[in-house]
Records
---
Amino acid sequence: MCRSIRTLRPPMAPEVGDEDIRAAALQYVRKVSGFRAPAAHNRAAFERAVEAVAEATRELLDDLEVRGGGGGPPRASTRS
């Protein structure tokens, strides 16, 4: 697990924006690919991967049902 990716679900993070989700997606793709920044010939594939991971993360966070654990205030949807 990437240590710099933080938990984005409530109640750990009651306010999560698109920037938080994209940062987590970018860290994940960097870890999996082994590249901090892609070479020019891999840039499009790298960006597509970041966007796909970010969208999957948005869907996951929007669909999760958190029970118990002293949940924080309701969170607005992150879907655009």
---
Amino acid sequence: MLGLNKKQVDESIKNPPSDDSYPLIPLLYTKNKSVGVNALSLTVIDLINQDQIRCDIDLDDSYEVGKKLTPQDMEVMKKITLRIANKGELKTSETAAINLLKNLNKNRKFNLKAMAKQTNSSSVANKFESDFNDYIKALKNENGFEGENYSDIVENGKLTSKGKEIKKGWKEFEHYLKSKDLTEKYPPESGEESSSQIIYGACFGIEKEALALRENNSSLADFIDKDGFKLLNIIFNNALLNVSQKRKGDGIFYGVNDKYTIPGGG
């Protein structure tokens, strides 16, 4: 159990070891070496959790995307509708994410299939890349990522001793999130904490495992149950894959996963 013994494990295991924003956790404490589209997807599911983006799903059963997108996957995407509510104050990066979604879909209400089809257009993809870069800049600026806030955690692109210690804490927290025994022993004390733990699970790619161990009837839980987080990553990756060659390499470097592509190229 990650070097933990029974004496060391107590209720504190369910406390995140640092207060980093969700999108920065994969960059800092996983194998990711660049800001990928999962950062944007994490912001979107957090906005769903905050009810800043409403989620309507016309599908009862749980769903899981396979190793390659199928026509069935596309029909499932058609049944997942998002509507931007955009109420109250937002972080700069959240506003950037919402503006990106508005520009991508030309509407405040859209289903995932329609959004996916949009990303096959190179002109739409080029605008997405520009908006995505704006989102990344806002995310880094508001968190002081390249300033004093992280100077004791990251140095010359590598974790410091303090950073490594925090990473160890996140590995232990990740283990808690997917451990049936630990979750039953130290369960979340509220729906809010449960939802937060599910989003933390998404930071490590174990969101469905975390969801399966927690009682949660929220829109976020329904979205995760239908593999919505993975679908967002597929859609946003597809947009970057369709950026015209002329523009590739501009702006901020990000990792692109070409494992999935959206049928019906532009």
